[in-house]
Specification:
Number of strands: 12
Structural class: alpha/beta
Number of domains: 2
CATH class of the largest domain: Alpha Beta
Radius of gyration: 23 Å
Largest sheet: 6 strands, mixed
CATH topology of the largest domain: Nitrilase/N-carbamoyl-D-aminoacid amidohydrolase
CATH superfamily of the largest domain: Carbon-nitrogen hydrolase
CATH architecture of the largest domain: 4-Layer Sandwich
Shape: globular
Number of helices: 17
């Protein structure tokens, strides 16, 4: 029965998460899990609790990241069975986050702690400390709730995850602990009030903010087509840029590695066909081929900023690489015979700086691929360079026609609120979008379509609590859950 309840909780959690987006379920999805943990722990066997929570974690990660099988198959060319095995190992490993979370909540519960307190502390600590190949925060389920979303500027995604689990915990003990439920409701009401105040304050700032008219081109080519048909890729980029001419953009953005032909290491000016087609400053992604000191071939995933006359104004090389496609995790532990089976493109060299690019007086931070999913990395980018605009260039075609595109956009919306910056996303197949500093999607293209659009993007500066303090909910949560689970000693409450 515990396994069945954990599986039902995983189903509800997946449906409530950002991909499917049935966000009301996110407030109740963990309730069956807490019941499962209680049933599994009645014999005093913590191992059963651990396994039930691990089952939940592996299932919810597998459901949310099912696209990994397609990605591995498309990119590596390995047999489907091998790709499914690798993906399954990743899901099981990532499920360990919830195994630890569930065990800590159960241990705190049998020591008399309220789940409404133990669950938010445990999720904040586990999401903060547990190592993962792919970033994921359950609080992103709340991305479509504008008043709740504003809490991200206080404590990032960990604050939203903690809030979501506090409500789940309160509902799981509603009859046994009405006081805890009342306290949780008061906390939620206070955060909704804070959100309303911040929406009004930021909207007032947006009215007076300087603006940059940004055009976005979404060429919509499959992962393999983009590299096999370079002529068609260039045509779609050029045609999309020409369609933007009536809007007179101050900047046009192409996606990650859009210019698949590649560029020389020391490029100083765009080729004439690009200058003629674009006719405006251009921010675009491409690939640079280089080598190590030992002569081994290496690639740089690069973004270049060109002026209206085609002169290169600056460049940025991707720092946070994508597992499996740009580097092979734990490659040093594998024999050379196995490493040789992986594609050569999985040898992208990490960039060495996060400095913004300058377009006249405007400072623009480029984020490539998954970099906009990493709150700590984006915080570093903003703290070190004080950009006025965040731009994410990505290629989500590697994930097929899955819900990964919606998950990526949802997580990106949190970055805009955390830093109070506009965020422009230019993607190959979608979802290209413009997100304002309140986390609202103000312009977007439909996924898996060719599209071009322009929007006036407000440019804000300044700091936020999250920018100054970082992931403090994780540190606080770790201290609280350790106290509840190992130090605090009171009489256990009846089930």
């Amino acid at each position: 029965m515990s396994a069945l309840l954990a599986s039902c909780a995983a189903l509800l959690g997946w449906l409530g998460f950002a991909g499917v987006g049935w966000w009301p379920l996110a407030w109740v999805a963990f309730v069956p899990l807490f019941v499962a943990l209680e049933r599994a722990g009645r014999t005093g066997a913590g191992a059963r609790v651990f396994l039930a929570a691990w089952l939940f974690g592996a299932l919810i990660w597998g459901a949310s990241c099912h696209w990994l099988v397609y990605t591995l198959r498309t990119f590596s060319g390995l047999p489907l069975v091998a790709c499914a095995l690798v993906a399954g190992l990743v899901f099981v490993a990532h499920g360990g986050l919830y195994a630890i979370f569930g065990w800590l909540v159960w241990r705190a519960r049998v020591r008399g702690a309220a789940v409404a307190l133990a669950a938010p502390a445990a999720i904040a600590a586990c999401e903060w400390l547990y190592p993962r190949l792919f970033p994921g925060y359950y609080g992103a389920s709340l991305h479509d709730l504008p008043l709740v979303l504003q809490s991200a500027e206080l404590g990032g995604p960990l604050a939203l995850s903690a809030l979501c689990l506090a409500v789940n915990g309160a509902l799981s003990e509603l009859r046994a602990r009405p006081g805890a439920a009342a306290a949780t409701a008061a906390c939620l009401a206070a955060l909704l009030g804070y959100g309303a105040l911040r929406v009004n304050a930021v909207e007032a700032r947006l009215e007076d903010a300087p603006r940059l008219r940004v055009g976005v081109v979404q060429p919509n080519m499959s992962a393999r087509e983009k590299w096999s048909d370079l002529r068609e890729g260039a045509r779609r980029l050029f045609d999309g840029s020409r369609e933007l001419a009536p809007a007179k953009p101050d900047l046009i953005v192409w996606p990650e590695a859009a210019w698949a032909v590649g560029v020389p290491l020391g490029l100083e000016r765009l080729p004439e066909p690009m200058r003629a087609a674009v006719g405006a400053p251009l921010l675009f992604g491409s690939i640079v081929r280089t080598s190590t000191e030992a002569g081994e071939p290496r690639l740089l995933n690069r973004v270049l900023l060109a002026g209206a006359r085609g002169e290169i104004l600056g460049s940025y090389d991707k720092v946070e690489r994508m597992p499996f496609s740009e580097y092979l995790p734990f490659a040093e532990l594998l024999p050379a015979s196995l490493r040789s089976l992986w594609p050569a493109r999985a040898s992208v060299e990490a960039g060495g700086h996060v400095a913004p690019l300058s377009l006249g007086p405007h400072r623009i931070a480029a984020l490539i691929c998954l970099e906009d999913l990493l709150p700590g990395f984006v915080r570093r980018v903003v703290r070190e360079g004080s950009p006025q605009l965040l731009v994410n260039l990505t290629n989500d075609a590697w994930f097929g026609e899955s819900d990964e595109q919606r998950i990526h956009l949802a997580l990106a919306r949190l970055r805009a609120v955390e830093q109070r910056r506009s965020l422009v996303r230019a993607t190959n197949t979608g979802l290209s979008a413009v997100i304002d500093p309140l986390g609202r999607v103000v312009a977007a293209a439909e996924p898996f379509t060719r599209a071009s659009f322009a929007a006036d993007v407000p440019l804000l500066e300044g700091t936020t609590p999250y920018q100054r303090l970082g992931d403090w909910p994780g540190a606080l949560g770790a201290a609280v859950i350790l106290w509840l689970a190992f130090v605090r000693r009171v009489e256990p409450q009846p089930p």
